[in-house]
Amino acid sequence: MNGSAQKNQDATQATGGPARRSDATRSAILDAARERFATDGYERATIRAIAKDARIDPSMVMRYFGSKEGLFAAAVTLNLRLPDLGQVPRDEVGRTLVGHFLDLWEKNEELTAVLRVGATNQAGAERMQTIFREQLLPVARQACPDPEQFAARAALCAAQLLGLAFTRYVLRLPPAVELTRAELLAWLGPTVQRYLTAPNP
């Protein structure tokens, strides 16, 4: 091997080593963060505790992810387990979706945390956009009468459902918190139904 080739190989090895270590560190942080967020919840989990679990200095967490919000957005993986609307009577799709989301928010603290982070952090907003694109759009496509409108209709549904979540579970506005499940289904079910299935206005 000539000198030039040897230098190139040495450079590749020098580059590959730190890159591999960097990937391993990032993975260790994400694994520790998922465990800590699942155990303690978003509010109680701390960068210091996550760094300790990952056996690294807390400054390394900030170096890789910038903030607790950025780390949470990178670590959390949410499967909304949305219902197959093809198996739901057409006049029940609105109530079905509203009921499903109410169940999610009541039981899944991570979903509320993602909403909170998404409102204030770019990484969180990108996570919400991914969830919308990969999970809500395919469901809206099942119910929409016009294939060209399903994205707009899904966005309207998201605005309604996320608005409810923000006022009820993040801001905790008393009138929103005090509404019963039956009242929420009665108010929001027909609205989401119209967004998904009504003729184009």
Fraction in beta strands = under 5%
- Count of discrete alpha- or pi-helical segments spanning 4 or more residues: 10
Distance between the termini: 73 Å
Shape: elongated
Order of helices and strands: HHHHHHHHHH
Biggest sheet character: none
Mean pLDDT: 87
| Low-pLDDT runs | 4-15
Count the strands?
0
**Rg (C-alpha, Å):** 22 Å
Helix content: over 70%
SS class = mainly alpha
Offer a concise description of the structure.
By secondary structure, the chain is mostly helical. The protein contains ten helices and no strands. Helix content is 78%, strand content 0%.
Walk me through this protein's architecture.
The protein has 201 residues and is an all-alpha fold. The chain contains ten helices and no strands. It has helices spanning 3-44, 47-54, 58-65, 68-75, 93-107, 109-118, 122-143, 150-170, 174-178, 181-197. Helix 2 (47-54) packs across helix 3 (58-65), helix 3 crosses helix 4 and helix 6 crosses helix 8. It starts with a helix and ends with a helix. The relative contact order is 0.10. Residues 4-15 have low confidence and may be disordered.
Descriptive keywords:
201 residues; mainly alpha; 10 helices; 0% strand; elongated
Describe the secondary-structure layout.
Layout: H1 3-44, H2 47-54, H3 58-65, H4 68-75, H5 93-107, H6 109-118, H7 122-143, H8 150-170, H9 174-178, H10 181-197
